[in-house]
Structure formats: structure tokens, C-alpha cells
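Our preliminary data section would be incomplete without showing what the modeling component actually yields. Below, a chain of 89 amino acids is followed by its predicted structure, encoded as C-alpha cells that our downstream tools consume directly.
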Amino acid sequence: MPNLPSAKKHIRADARKAERNRYTRSTMRTAIRAARAGIAAKDDDAQDRLRMAMSKLDKAAKKGVIKKQTASRRKSRLMRLYNREVVAG
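Predicted structure:
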């Protein structure tokens, strides 16, 4: 248990940050799943879902929830999947 007031404040702040990170990570993962489902089904709105997933990845990286390179790698893999399944096939 923290004794100092500043330590107590850090615990409260960490809880708020963890909740924000959980929300951001959850919405990012949901968007990625939706994009993958749209690509697999070759829907007309697959491109919009892909764009939304890219945006969520960028926002998560900007907020520090995931690293910048992780976001870049995931975006690259999504685009590669999209080009292979929808554009070429």
C-alpha cells in the first residue's frame, strides 16, 4: 500500500491510463477483425473497413498503446492480405 500522497495519485492515474489503453486496444482489435472478415468475404465495404482499421492502428500508436513499428507491420500485413484477396483475386 502506498504511503505518500504522490504514490496514491500515481495509482489512480495508472488506473485511468489502463482503462484508456484497454478501450483503445479493444476498438483496434475489433476494427482489425472486421477488416479481415470483410476481406475474406470480399465485401464491397472491405476497403472502408480496412481504412477504419488503419486509422485505429495509427491512433493506438499515437497514444502509445502499441509501438509505431507494430502498427506499421500490422497495417502492412492487412494491405498485403487485401491486395492478395480482393484486388488480385
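Residues 27 and 89 are 29 Å apart (CA to CA). The helical segments are 5-41, 46-63, 68-87. Preliminary results of this kind motivate Aim 1 of the renewal.
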